[in-house]
Known about the structure:
Layout: H1 2-12, H2 23-44, H3 54-72, H4 77-100, H5 102-109, E1 113-117, E2 120-121, H6 123-128, H7 133-144, E3 152-157, E4 163-167
Antiparallel strand pairs: 1-2, 1-3, 3-4
Amino acid sequence: MNAFYNFVGPLLGLGVEPKDLTFFQISLRGIIVFVATLIMVRLGHKRSLARKTAFDAVLIVILASVLSRAINGSSAFFATLGGGLVIVALHRLFASAAYHWHWFGFLIKGSPELIVRDGKMLRDVMRRNHVSEHDLEEDLRLDAQMEDASKVKIARVERSGDISFIKKE
């Protein structure tokens, strides 16, 4: 183990003050963190970055914050990578629990809310979700290729924040 540390230590600037890291050391740290993060996210869940829920945004923000410390040297390199792996594992564990227990999914991911019913805007729910009439109309044009909300059977603000539409028949 000492041979590994004696070889890798100087390359990565292990044990060096952050201000004393060289361009090469920071670059090498960045490459390793990039590859390690890619592996962590792939081990996590394919859809974790595509879902756009607050639950997934928290993973992104915290993982980026923790792993940046490995690059800039403000925290121990390998311990920080390990911490990132623990965060991804916890995210996956929570996602699995949300799959198995619906109540837990509501707790960590939220729930969809109806904002249009039979062509009528539910303004109190829209206000609570910070969806203006203009926002609704924009999503209606972009996602449903429609101009008129009165032709919508149901519209929901989904857990991701996207608005889904079901047209009247």
